[in-house]
User: Fold this.
Amino acid sequence: MPKNQAMPWQSYVDEHKTVVFNLTMGKSRFIDAASYFGTEIEASLFEDEASEPELEVFFTGTKIGGISAKIILNLVLDNQIIDILSNNIDESMRMPSGVTKTTFTAKGERAMSHLKIRALTFIPGANLEETMIENLFGKPDTIELADEGVSYWHYPQKGLRIIVDAEHKEVLEFYNQ
Assistant:
């Protein structure tokens, strides 16, 4: 692993903003992440009547320091980009949950390049055991029990919540507190 390679357990909070992989939530842009994670992406807008629209960028083939992972960025939306995206729709479909998922043309995806990153989700290819998580990240400030076999480990000093799941892969969510 290169010495300058940022790893997820090296995240921290600086002036109330989470920094992970040298990306600052709320400040760094999608184009900054693309230079780090690659350009193989799928961008989707998720909309339902009960909540604000969510624009996600999924990096399909990512390796961080030899670790295969899925990376999902949540981008900050504004009315201007929504107007641009509405003119560059590739496909729109209603999912069984009732949420509408819209994907975009290459032109639409390029229009997203300067949008700020609101949050970053890291899903490692390998399952992380609880002892490994504690060795890498330390003991969480709090653990919140959810469904059976699922808990949320909170690391506010790292701007991180880890979803620990006995039956599925762990999910690391980096966001501003």
